[in-house]
Amino acid sequence: MPLRIKLPTNEKVIINGAVLENAGDATTMIIHNKVDILRRKEVMNEADAVSPARRVYYALQCAYLFESDRNEYLTLANGLISEYVEAAPSAKEIVDSIEGKLRDEKYYDALKNTLDLIDHETARLVQIGVLEPEAVSE
After folding, report:
1. What is the value of pTM for the model shown?
2. What is the DSSP letter of 132?
3. Are 27 and 75 within 8 A, CB to CB?
């Protein structure tokens, strides 16, 4: 089944590592084959990978988008994941889910599960007083 993406004016999308931007009126794209795709709201800039869980997300994002460098990014991500769960054993269930998706080569699903790891990290930081609860809801 084709994937239908509505792309507003000036919106960007990454498909197989290529950044595409809609320079005209809002449009709808239909993708008929399997591609690695992220929409702008799913893309994390390297500068925003400022915490352990966010660094995992960024590494997996790169592994997902850049097939030619995938093994390098997966090695990096696996190391970061191991460090995270060692520091926060309460994340074991989330990490197990991410690692299962990676074993099955479901990189987009692993990336989505990493959002749960970011939420876990945020909750722990609020719990120990590093983040204020108000800062999280902004």
Report:
1. 0.85
2. -
3. no
